[in-house]
Each structure stands twice: as structure tokens, then as C-alpha cells.
Amino acid sequence: MSGTDTDDAGAEGSSTTGEGSSYAAQLSGISKRFGDVVANDDVNLDLERGSVHALLGENGSGKTTLMNVLYGLYEQDEGTVRVDGQVRDFDSPRDAIDAGVGMIHQHFQLVEPMTVLQNVILGTEPTRGGLVDEDAARADVEEICERYGFDVDEELDTPVRELDLGAQQHVEIVKSLYRGAEILVLDEPTAVLTPQEVEGLFEVMAELTASGRSLIFITHKLGEAMEAADEITVLRDGHAVGTVSANATSREELAELMVGREVLFDADDRTTEPGDPVLTIEDLQVIGDRGRPTVRGVDCQIREGEILGVAGVEGNGQSELAESIVGLRSVADGTVTYEGTDITDASRRSLIQDGIAYIPEDRQSEGLVLDYDLERNALLGNQTVEPFVRRGVVDWDAVGDHAESIVEEYDVEPHDTGAMAESLSGGNQQKFVVGREFEHDPRAIVAAHPTRGVDIGSIEFIHDRLREMRDEGLAVLLVSSKLEEIQQLSDRIAVMYEGEFVDVVDPGAVTEQDLGLLMTGNELDDGSEPDSGTTHGNGGDDQ
Amino acid sequence: MSSTDTTPAASDDASGDGTDAGGDDSLGRRALARLVDASIFERLGIAVASTLLALLIGLVVVAAAGYDPVLFIDNMVYGIFGTYSVADLFGTNNRLAQTLRPTVTFIITGVAVAIAFRAGVFNIGVQGQFVVGGFAAAATIVSIAGSLPGGAAGGAMVIVVATIAAIAAGGLYAMLPGILKAYAGANEIITTIMLNFVASGVVFWLLDAYFRPGGTFFVRTERFPEHVSFPQPIFEGTSFSVVGLAIALLTAGVVFWIMERTRFGYDLVTSGHQADAASYSGVDAKRTIVATMTFSGMVAGLAGAVYVIMVLSYFSDPATLPTFGFDAIAVSLLAANNPLGVIPAGLLFGGLESGGNFVNQSSDVPRQLIDGVVGLVVLFVAAPELFRMAGKRMDVGGDEQ
After folding, report:
1. Which residues of A touch B1 (CB under 8 A)?
2. What is the C-alpha to C-alpha distance for residues A130 and A127, in angstroms, rounded to an integer?
3. Domain ranges in chain A?
4. A174, A356, B23, B50: most buried by Cβ count inside 10 Å?
5. Which of residues 238-297 of A touch B (CB under 8 A)?
6. Which value, in Å, is the radius of gyration of the alpha carbons in chain A?
7. How many angstroms separate the CA of residue A127 from the nearest CA in chain B?
8. How many residue pairs from chains A and B have C-beta atoms closer than 8 A?
9. Closest-CA residue in chain B for A101?
């Protein structure tokens, strides 16, 4: 459509009343129901021009639904959408884009084998004589990059799949700007980013607002909302429970608005002493999906009653480390010993039977079969466990009871084992997976990002359970990209960088900044080396 | 399901993108959602209505081509049921047997296809496994029948041994592409299609070289002894036996039970739904592929045994056999790869085959026109089911993060 024209596609809506309105977008009295489920109930949101407005809420609180209404994906049942002061009724995202509303989805909508430039102009290619005018496109895109300080203009001819996630996100933003977006909706943009990349994103957001763009920033992280936003609207159960100014609120206030009750932010005090080693990993080497070594000689021990946290920027071998321990990825070299037995080449099934539980990184592709109900999902991983299966025959009654008890004890909503896994919100899916794994009666747990994309209430719950498990004497390997989580839970923190443990430190003795340094491959030189007496059962640090 | 499939959209789902047709095609989407939600009875109703609509359109074409549509439908119905009244269904004219005979093979081969498809493995080689199984049964019968006692007991013994041989042969023949896929990455669609030709060729050569009775011109085994056949309490003298039908129904039931109630079935179906989740739960993906193909081929081999024992009573050049193994793909898809659903789907195909044959024999309507009408019916019945599957897939696709 208006491909060559990068800037004023949004202007058509502003021609009448737009000049006078100080709001870039106004959502008034929006209600949206799906069958019996009320996703949004009379929600108001006013987006001040040139500002960042955070939309904060737990998973399932209706944030994405509200934005899909603004973006033309859903039609609201009640309420009005104004863009630039004018009432708009978008039938499709195309209409919204034409009116200057862009949305950056949590999962990027990029064509991976295509180059950055091709992705940016896809669907709005400038043409000359029926052919794509690449030179014009390149000039336009370069101009946008220059104006907002993106460095993807140096990668315009690189296939998107070769970029890291932070850069891919920049491509998404450039794409929206190229399409003339005045209002940008960022759906959980920080979920996939490293702390450094998050900082970079916030800088970009500041640039964008400085140039008059207006942003809606969807998140469930309190700190990010406070840091990046001017105003914060909190959604809970489909209601807007409050709009506050970011510099006049506190984490406690926001947390309370979000979950409707006080949330404690205490780190726990560690009372138990670790016991004998349960898992011993020696010189572990693993080849990754692309044929390159991703775990390059890791040594460590995880003992009874201990949580070993593995911190690191994603993609430094943590996933492969976890998968190779639980039997999902073959080991190139080195050994894994579990309670005195060499399990380096043991199958996943035998390790399940031996009591190694695994909370997978991706609950939706691994931890659950999405179009199975919860009852069928309760059997997943339990296929060789009595009484659920006896002599190869499934006892669905026993499995059903098991599903019931998981749903009860782990507070999975809805309390209905006939519900399809895909119908649950992310937090409830995760609680179900966590519950199922913990009910295995394991001796060791490998937990990969156990609270990723999970709401605060569930995070607290899962953390409590992990601590309980630890206190009961289990050995826990916790992989997480959330430093806060690692610091709160771990008895020792191993920092992984490029397939190696850079250091193993005492969480009490390091700051978030120290960890950030370690995570980028630097060594600590300020003397805050951990007390080796309490933290070292191994020679894993400092390769 | 309308409430369950929308809740994730209300949560943290990042479903639609700019290309999503959701906004401007909501009527179509609603219809699709309605179809996905349809109960089993509604689906049967839809199938019946589709059949009638397809016949109606077919008859218009028949009339336009200058043939009598009333006579056509009359012949079709009579060809399928052999009567116009339910009381006469098992009467003396044996038309119903002509319907049930192909139904038996459609059901068993359909189940064979369904097993593989449910596990996400595309066994297009059911025809070849059917041929290999049928040949193994025939070869066993002509080899051992003479050295075993005659009579019903001896016949039953021969049949059991022959059937086991057929199941083993079909299973081993399907195991090959399974191994090639699991351990060498060979696409099973290509290997199974190629192995169909290999099966025909090798079986033809074996027949020609070792099983052709001396002095005969045709490439076929000798006829089986009289006592090596299924008992026929009704429809005597036809090439249909209720024992064959019972085997078909039992096969569908047992396979359904295996899928729903056993670890093997759960592993297999889970692999088909979500391979990563299956691996996570301890399923060995490679072994499951081999086991699935073998299981599928065993059932195809069984279909071959039942076919030669019940219908042929000899075995001849595989190229002259009907292509049950390919039609079975349509049967299975029509049944949404559900082993129990294969039963009505097999009946529909059996009825259309038998009715079409009768129209061909008893009127001057050209075969091509009959096949066209039959094709219309299959298309019309399959279309809602295909849309249903597509609708399900789209919902799942939208929910994936």
C-alpha cells in the first residue's frame, strides 16, 4: 500500500479532530467476552502522545486481548477505540496499520531465511514498474535506522535467522516504523532479552517517544514497568484496577494491584545443610543443534538439599546442559553420575524411573500436549510409572485421580481435568507441569526456566515448592535467565558463558552487577570471590 | 469447545499476525468453529446430508448426460442393499454381500493407514504390505494345506498359520521403511511408495518362479482346497463371510483399544501430536517410528490374508489386485484417522463400490460417469471432515507460542 511513504500513513486519521487531542489512542469502556469468559470488562486506557504507557498484569489478565482490540484482531463487544481523537473501528490489523498502529508480538513475525531488508518491507514493498525498488527501500530503512539509532542497517542483507533475538526485535520495530506506525504496541518485549538487551530496548523506547511516537508496553515485570513507562495501567482479571504514574508508585503498590494481595519479596533464609552429592558432572561436553560444541567441559556437583543455580545469558549452553543431564540430548564427552551410577548414556525413560524430574524450558512444546486435556497430560512422563500404567495398560482412573490431585494441590485454574491444556493460561500450564514433575517423587530436579512467562502469584508458588523440595533433601539444578530468581533460590550460583562455567559463586557475596559481568565472560577482580569452603564441591569455576 | 479454545486468546497468547484472516472472515471462522465443535451424531448427520447433496448433483449430471436419473439411483440403492426393505436385507439375492465384501478390506486397510497417520508417520505403502501379506498367506496355504488334515479343524489351523505369516510379512515389509526413516532419515512417503512397486515385482517373480502350477499359462497359485475358507452361515456361495467382517470389526476395536488404553498407544499418538512432548516424556522417537510402521504393516498384512482367503482363494499377479491400500488412505482420512471411525467410512466406500458396479452392469451409463458420481459423494463427505481437521489445526496453530 503506502509502501514508499514511511511517515504519514497515520496522518489520515488525525486530519479532523486529531490535532487537538493530546491522546494518541483512547480505549474507553472496552469489554470483550469469549463465550462465558470475560477477557476485558469495561477497560479504559488513555495513551498520552509521546509517552510510554505500561500495561501491567499477570498472565491471563487480559492485556493481550485489549491490545488485539486496538490492533484490529478482535472486535470489542462494547466500548470505543479512538486513535488521534477519532473513533475507529478496525476490521483487521491492516486497517490498524494504515491508521498508524503497529504491534510487536512476543513471538516475532519474521521470515527467518529472508534478509532484514526483505523482512522490513515485506507486504509494503515500494515498487517501480512492477518490480521491488530495493534502492528506495534501502534508503528509507537506513534513514529510519539512523534517526532512531538502530544498528540493524549494517545487517540489511543478513538473513534474520542469523541475528540474535535482540536484533530481531529491532527489525520488528523498524518494520513497524517503516509501515508508518505512530503508536507501537510492544507485547512482552523483554521476555526474550538479556539484561543488557533490555537496557538497549529501553533506550530505543526513549528515542521513539522523544520523536513523538507513543508506546504501549505490555509486561508482567514490575521493575520494567516502573523503569520504562510514564504511566502504568494495571489489569487484573480483565478489569483495569488502576492507572498510576510510574514515578509516584512503588513495587509494593503495583504488586498489590496486580495480584490483589501483598506479595513478599524476601529472599529466604537457608536453613538446611547440603548433604552427599546426588549428581556429579565431569568434563561434560555436548554438541548443539547446529553441530557446534555448546557445553564445553562443565564440572559440577549437585548435592542433597541444595539448589545449584545456573545463570547466564540465554544461548550459552544452559539448555543443552539441562537436556543432556535428563537424557534428552546425547553427550559428546565426559560423564554424568547419579547416586553413584553412570547415567551419561541412559535413556530419558530410565532416568524418569530413577527419579530425575525435569521441568522443561518450553512447556508448550515439551511439557504439555496442547490438544490433550489435563487428564491425558497427567500421564505424560508417567507412562512407565505404576499405578498409572501396569503391564503396558493405562489405568485412566488412576491417571484421572492423579490429575485431580495435581490440579488441587498446585491450584491449577480451571479446576477441571477435562480442560484442554491449550486453554490454560501460561501460569496455570506451568503449575500443572511443575506439579506433575514434583509428584514423581523425584530424587533430583532439573528445572529450566521454571517461572518463565508466569504470573507473580504462580512464581511465588513455584519458588516455595522448589524450596520445599530442596528442604526435603532433593538436589535441584535451576537454570534461569532471571537473576532475581537465581539469587533468591540458589545455594550456589554457577555462571555459564560460552559453554563453560565461568565461576561458581555464593549468592550472598555477589551483586547483580557482578553476575552481569560474569555472564558476559568477565572475571571478578574486586575481591568478592566466594568463600570456597561453603560453595565448592568441585573444580568447576574459572576454566 | 468454543469456550476453551478462546481462553488462551484471552491470556498471553500472541496469536494473530497481520495476515490473519480473522478480522474480515468471521462468518467463515464461526462456521469452522461450529464444525470443529460438532458432536459425533452431528457429524454423521452432516455425512448423510453431504451424501444426499452429492447424489442430487450427480443425478443432475446424469440427467444432463441423457440418462435416466431415477433408474440410476434405483440401481445404485439396489446395488448396495439388494432390496428396498430392511426386512429383506439378508435375503437370497446376496447383493449386500457384494457391499460388505469390499467393506471388510476397506476397514482393515483403513485401520492400517490410521495407525501410521495417528503417529504422524505417512505409510503410503499399505498396498505393498497388503500384497506381501496376501502372498505370504497364499504361499503358506498352498505349501502346508496338503500335509495337514482336511475338514473344518484342519482348515482353521491352516488359516491361522497363514494369517500369522501374513501379519509377520506385512509387518516386516513395513518395518523396512520405518528403519530407513528412523535411522537414515529417508522420507517414508517416498520409500513406501517405491516399496509398493518392489512388492509387486518381487511377488510376481516368486509366483512365476515357484508357485505357478505346472502347465498353466496364468501367473497365479493353485486354488486353495475347499476346506481352507471362512464358514458362511449366511450369504452362502458368495465371496463374503461374516467371519471376515468380524475380523475387520475386531481389528478396528482392538486397535482403538491399543491407541486409547495402552502405553504403546499413548506413546504412538503423543508422538503424532507433539513429537517434542513425546521425547520429553521418555518416548524413544526412532523406536516409535519403527514400531508404528511395523504395527501398521501388520494390519495391512492381515488385510491381505483376509482378502485372499475370503475373496480370491488363490493369489495372482499383484498388478491385477484392486488398489485397496490407496483407497484406504481416503477411508482413514474420512474417519479422521480414528480406528472406529474407519468402520462407517469403510461401509461408505464398500457401498459405493458395490452400488457403482451394479449400475455399470445393469444400465448403459458409462463407467466414467458412475465413477464421477461416486467421486462426488466421497468429495462431499470428506470435505466437512477435512475442514474440521484444518479448523482444529488452525486453532492449535494460533495457540502455539
Report:
1. 420
2. 6
3. 9-259, 268-355+444-543, 369-441
4. A356
5. 238
6. 25
7. 21
8. 174
9. B18
Chain A: residue whose CA lies nearest to B18 = A93
Residue A381 to residue B282, Cβ atoms within 8 A: yes
Residues of chain B in contact with residue A328, where contact means CB-CB under 8 angstroms, are 279-280
User: Which CA distances in Å does A306 have to A263, A446, A476, A519, B90?
Assistant: 25, 12, 6, 22, 75
CB contact under 8 A, A426 and B11: yes
Distance CA A215, CA A286 (A): 42
The SS3 assignment for A25 reads: strand
Closest CA to A447 of A425, A432, A462: A462
- For each successive 10 residues of chain B (401 residues), what is the average pLDDT? 38 39 59 77 85 92 91 88 68 78 96 94 95 96 86 90 97 96 92 95 93 82 89 83 95 96 95 91 93 97 96 91 92 90 92 90 89 89 80 49 29
Q: A425-456, pLDDT tens digit by residue? A: 878 899 999 999 998 889 999 999 898 767 77
Of B2, B4, B23, the CB nearest to A92: B23
CB count in 10 Å sphere of residue A529: 17
Q: Which residue of A has its CA nearest to B21?
A: A92
What are the residues whose beta carbons fall under 8 Å from the beta carbon of A427, sequence distance 6 or more? A58, A59, A60, A453, A454, A455, A457, A458
Chain A residue with minimum CA distance to B392: A371
Question: Cell digits for A59?
Answer: 498472565
Q: Which residues of B touch A382 (CB under 8 A)?
A: 281
Q: In terms of Cα–Cα distance, which of A57, A91, A94 is closest to A219?
A: A57
Which residues in chain B have Cβ-Cβ distances shorter than 8 Å to A426? Answer: 11-12, 401
Helices (H) and strands (E) in chain B — how many of each? 15, 0
Backbone phi and psi for residue A92, each to the nearest 5 degrees, phi listed first: -155, 165
Among the partner-chain residues A39, A65, A349, the one whose CB lies closest to the CB of B282 is A349
Burial class (CB in 10 A: 0-12, 13-18, 19+), A379: buried
Minimal Cβ distance to B18: which of A97, A187, A364: A97
- Look up residue A507 and give its DSSP letter: G
Give me A69's grid cell: 482490540
Other CB atoms within 10 A of residue B218 CB: 12
Matching CATH number, A9-259, of 2.40.50.140, 3.40.50.1820, 3.40.50.2300, 3.40.50.300: 3.40.50.300
Provide, as residue numbers in chain B, all residues whose Cβ is less than 8 Å from the Cβ of A32: 10
Contact residues on chain B for A64, CB-CB shorter than 8 A: 9-14
Query: Which grid cell is B183?
Result: 535411522
Q: How far is A73 from chain B (nearest CA, A)?
A: 6
Question: What is the CATH architecture assignment of A268-355+444-543?
Answer: 3-Layer(aba) Sandwich (3.40)
CB B63: neighbour CB atoms within 10 A?
13
Global pTM? Answer: 0.71
Mutation to test the A interface, candidates B268, B281, B295, B399, most A Cβ within 10 Å: B281
Asked if domains A9-259 and A268-355+444-543 share a fold, the reply is: yes
What are the residue boundaries of the structural domains of chain B, listed by start? 104-339
> Which residues of chain A are within 8 Å of residue B26 when distances are taken between CB atoms?
75
State yes or no: ipTM above 0.90: no
Can you list the pairs that B175-180 forms with residues at least 24 positions away whose Cβ atoms lie under 8 Å?
Answer: B175/B290, B175/B293, B175/B294, B175/B297, B177/B123, B177/B125, B177/B293, B178/B121, B178/B289, B178/B290, B178/B291, B178/B292, B178/B293, B178/B294, B179/B290
Q: Do B4 and A419 touch (CB under 8 A)?
A: yes
Nearest-angstrom CA–CA distance, A428 and A449: 15
- Cα separation of A390 and A399, whole Å? 12
